[in-house]
């Protein structure tokens, strides 16, 4: 069963990375973008981004858009707004794809990309 889940995840990731933006048309919209779990997913993604980019740390300003899709767990595609933590009012926006394993709550940042406002 684990092999099937891993295969489904790998195939889904390959498809998702090819056309991340197009997913907003094909997944279930998240109605409450302020839901604590959605905010937790966004903060997780931002923490991972902060670990990967060489810039001032960013903090979450808002979750602007989102959808989810069942893929051996849940995949969340979110558009988030961030601010630098050094007091500057520079807002950066990202599109992030996070996969959360069913049952365990383990998360993985699949992809992220800066987007223009």
From TrEMBL:
InterPro entries the UniProt entry points to: Cystatin_dom, Cystatin_sf
Please give the Gene Ontology molecular function terms for this protein. cysteine-type endopeptidase inhibitor activity
Q: Does the keyword Lipoprotein apply?
A: no
Region forming the signal peptide: 1-22
Give the matching SMART domains.
CY
* Keyword terms: Protease inhibitor, Signal, Thiol protease inhibitor
CDD domains linked to this entry = CY
- List residues of the Cystatin domain: 22-115
Q: Name one Pfam family in it.
A: SQAPI
Name the source's superkingdom: Eukaryota
Protein name as annotated: Cystatin domain
Protein source organism: Dillenia turbinata
């Amino acid at each position: 069963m684990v092999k099937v889940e891993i295969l489904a995840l790998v195939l889904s990731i390959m498809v998702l990375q090819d056309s991340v933006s197009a997913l907003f048309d094909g997944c279930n919209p998240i109605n409450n973008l302020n839901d604590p779990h959605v905010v937790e997913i966004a903060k997780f993604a931002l923490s991972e981004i902060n670990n990967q980019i060489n810039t001032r740390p960013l903090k979450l300003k808002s979750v602007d858009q989102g959808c989810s899709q069942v893929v051996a767990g849940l995949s969340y595609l979110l558009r988030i707004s961030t601010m630098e933590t050094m007091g500057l009012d520079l807002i950066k926006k990202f599109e992030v794809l996070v996969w959360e394993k069913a049952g365990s709550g383990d998360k993985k940042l699949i992809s992220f990309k800066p987007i223009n406002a």
